Amino acid sequence: MENIASFLKTTISILITLAIISSGLFLWGKTQPVVELANSQAAAQARELSEQQYSAFDNQIVSGSQILTAYRRYESQQGFCLYVERPYVNGQGESERQISLNPSEKDYCRAFDYSSGSFKEGPDTRGVDIEELSEASGRYYISPQARFKAKLIKDKNERIAAIYFVAE
Fold it and tell me: The whole model's pTM is what?
């Protein structure tokens, strides 16, 4: 009789343990969609926060002085570039109108197609220093009163990698 009682206690404890484990797995399965939704919303909010610093340039009309401000603002961001298409001036070549600026000055900007406003393969070796933009006698001078349309440029990973300024 004692063996039967011991067997029943062991069996009942195993059944209770299995019931607890199965109810835990059931609840875990029910919460997975909620956890995935929360994770995707958190990722979207983190992305919005990281892109918020660029909102001042998102399809906005900016002045030439704001381009110089953007250059100083993004100095600490490696791989971030500014592309500027200045207004046409008689006798000025395309290489003097279309300039790339790398605020971190660590390496080259990516090649850029100014007509479509998108990246191309390879590096752009036509980088210009900030001094060449701010000196009135310089070849690449950007007047502080000039007006430009700013556009954010994203890379393959949908990360903002550049700002493109087109003269109005």
Answer: 0.71
